[in-house]
Every structure is written in C-alpha cells, then in structure tokens.
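User: Can you recover a sequence for this backbone? Please restate the input before giving your answer.

Assistant: Of course. Working from this structure:
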C-alpha cells in the first residue's frame, strides 16, 4: 500500500540472520554454568514473544532466497530447542537480543504493506498515491508489541475522542506506553477539520504526542469511491449504507497503516474507556496462548461490535482483504464474524459445532477490558446505548498474576 522500499539483497539478509542465530547460540552456551538460576516459565514466555516476532517478520517480508526463508521459518524452533537442551537462565540476554531484532527488522520493513485493493476499489488503480496516508503527526515509532487503532470522524453533536485517548493513556504505565503505538485515523477530508483535531490532540496530550506514543493520520481525499454509486444492501437506507461502507474503508486504511508497526493490533473506537493494566493483560494473554501452542485468530476483550478485538499484525491482511471485498455489503463487525465462520465452520455440521469451532479461534476474555461510552453515533440521528455488562465486574487478580508469571 503506497510506499515501497528497495529490497536488500538476499545474501545480506542471510548474513544478518546467520550472525543473529550464532550470537544467540553463543549466549546460551556461555550461560551453561548458571543452570541453578534457570526459570523455565520466564524463558518459555520470552521464547513465545521471540517466536511471535519472528513470525511477524516472516509474514511481512516474502524473501526469494529459499535458504533465508527456511532460516527465518525455523528460527524460533531452533531457539526453543537450544533452551530446552541447555538448562540455563537467559532472560536478560534475550531482552538484549530482542532489541537487536527490533533494529534488524527495520532493514526489511516496508512502511505499509501491499494489498489487492484495486480490484474492489478500481478508482485507485491508476493513482497509487491515493493510498498514501496524510501524516498529520508521527514520532516514527515502530517494532512495538501493541498497536491500538482508533478511527474517528466528525460528529454532529458530542465528541468523545479526547476523553477516550486520555483514558487509554492514563491506564497504561510508562513501560506499557513505551511498548505501544496509538494510531488515530481521522476519516475526513476537510483540511481545516483535520488541523483542528490534530491541534487539539497535541494541546491536550503533549507528552504522549512528543514521546511518539500517538500517530495521527488521515486518508487522501481521493481514497474514497463515489458513495452515490453504492448498492443498497440489507434493506438499509441510502444514508446508512453510505455510513457503514465508509466506516469499513476507514477500518481498512487504518489497519493497512498499522500492520507493519508492531506485533499485535487492537481495534478500538473513539468513544471507549479501558480498565487499568489492560495492555499487560492483553499481551500476556496472547503470549501465554502462543507459548502453550493454542491456536487463535482473535482475542476478544469486549463483547460489543469491533471494540477490543486483538489480532496478530501478521494476520491483519486476511481481515483487510475480506473487508475490502465486501465493504458495501455488511457492517465491519458482521464481516469479521463472517470471515471467522468461513475459516472455522464445516457446512456439513450443525450450528452448535460451528459455534464450538469458532470459539476455538475467537477467544473471549472475561471480564471485558473496554466499555463503550458514546450515546450519539457517528451516523447522524442514531442513538447508541449499548453497554458491555461484563465490564462492570472486577478483574480476577489471581488470573492476572498467573498470566504475569508466564
């Protein structure tokens, strides 16, 4: 999407990863005399994070050299084998190697991935620059664990964006903030309004903006198709079809920008609040499932709509492509459900079997970590009073501590 970078030569990448693997092996062997300090759960957790990051790198960059592909593909399994064979304590060393990984990933990272949007948005075919985001502010932060996408649009009456951002940031400690990126995508083309919202965010949240925690982007005015030519679907009014179709395209643009920025993506809205420690709980939950070898596609931390849906950034292309294909047909959260049903369900089985299979890859966390606070929808005249009843319940401290121990 948009930008491209000149690809490094395969031999340079091969040298990079051979050197990286050699350094790790050396560190593990050099620590073989500290077996009494070995913490199995800590190493397992660190290895899960490394495995997830290597998987993310592999999917971001499709290499032509088969040797390099195989080296990256089996990198995490080799590390895990080494750890099991050498009963050593390596947590501090893995931390330093993670930093080295974050630096090396920039060599092969493309700022925005390429997706086949032109078939379904043909007006973009001859104008690839229309997919370039308007960067209203960016600190250039990359290689974080958590990327939070916050789409926002002009509302006729009350706006909740600043309240939402303040709440999200205040419920993260300094360590969590440094490991996060919040991307605010303003789905408007009015330049005056874009500058107004950007200035308000900078004025109200100067520390977050200056530290690189918050990126602010907007689409090119030419990104959107001619909404007057949309098909009327689901028996909805023309205004509602236009509203939800544009919302879907806003999701797509936001996800395409966020996809190469980190390891996990969390979809939020501009009218939500969060529980304290939500970042740590979400990250630990994901890494625990990875370490345990449990399959998942979505970790769901709010029962309402698209709020609190967490995915691997490397899995986002599946959802992006699905929404692009059917953006005119259904709301985004319905499309997400449809994609999961397509992935999980056997048409020869009954609905109960389908639900069971979906629940295996769409995992719901209780209690909810996010709550919807808006009452005025971005669709003019629509009142939205939905609340997640599970948000009121307190978080199970024992469960959090168990996750933290991983």
């Amino acid at each position: 999407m948009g930008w491209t970078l000149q690809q490094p030569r395969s031999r340079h990448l091969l040298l990079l990863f051979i050197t990286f693997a050699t350094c790790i092996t050396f560190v593990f062997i050099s620590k073989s005399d500290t077996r009494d300090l070995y913490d199995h759960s800590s190493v397992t957790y660190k290895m899960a994070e490394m495995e997830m990051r290597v998987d993310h790198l592999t999917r971001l960059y499709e290499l032509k050299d088969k040797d390099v592909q195989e080296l990256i593909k089996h990198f995490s399994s080799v590390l895990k084998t080494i750890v099991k064979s050498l009963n050593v304590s390596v947590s501090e060393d893995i931390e330093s190697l993670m930093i080295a990984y974050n630096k090396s990933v920039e060599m092969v990272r493309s700022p925005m991935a390429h997706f086949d949007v032109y078939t379904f948005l043909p007006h973009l075919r001859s104008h690839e620059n229309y997919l370039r985001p308007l960067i209203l502010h960016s600190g250039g932060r990359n290689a974080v664990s958590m990327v939070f996408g916050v789409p926002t649009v002009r509302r006729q009456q009350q706006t909740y964006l600043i309240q939402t951002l303040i709440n999200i940031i205040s419920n993260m400690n300094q360590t969590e903030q440094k490991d996060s990126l919040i991307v605010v995508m303003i789905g408007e083309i009015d330049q005056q309004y874009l500058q107004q919202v950007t200035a308000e965010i900078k004025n109200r949240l100067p520390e977050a903006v200056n530290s690189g925690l918050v990126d602010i982007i907007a689409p090119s005015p030419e990104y959107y198709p001619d909404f007057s030519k949309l098909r009327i679907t689901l028996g909805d009014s023309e205004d509602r079809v236009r509203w939800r179709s544009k919302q879907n395209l806003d999701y797509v643009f936001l996800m395409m920008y966020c996809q190469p920025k980190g390891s996990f993506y969390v979809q939020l809205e501009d009218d939500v609040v969060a529980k304290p420690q939500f970042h740590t709980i979400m990250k630990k939950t994901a890494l625990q499932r990875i370490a345990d070898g449990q399959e998942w596609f979505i970790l769901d931390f709010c029962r309402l709509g698209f709020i609190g849906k967490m995915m691997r950034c490397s899995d986002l292309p599946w959802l992006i492509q699905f929404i692009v294909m059917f953006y005119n047909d259904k709301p985004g959260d319905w499309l997400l459900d449809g994609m999961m049903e397509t992935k999980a369900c056997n048409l020869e089985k009954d609905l109960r079997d389908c639900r069971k299979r979906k629940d295996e890859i769409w995992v719901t966390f209780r209690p909810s970590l996010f709550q919807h606070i808006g009452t005025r929808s971005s669709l003019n005249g629509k009142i939205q009073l939905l609340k997640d009843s599970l948000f009121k319940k307190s978080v199970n401290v024992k469960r959090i501590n168990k996750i933290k121990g991983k």
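That completes the design. The radius of gyration is 22 Å.
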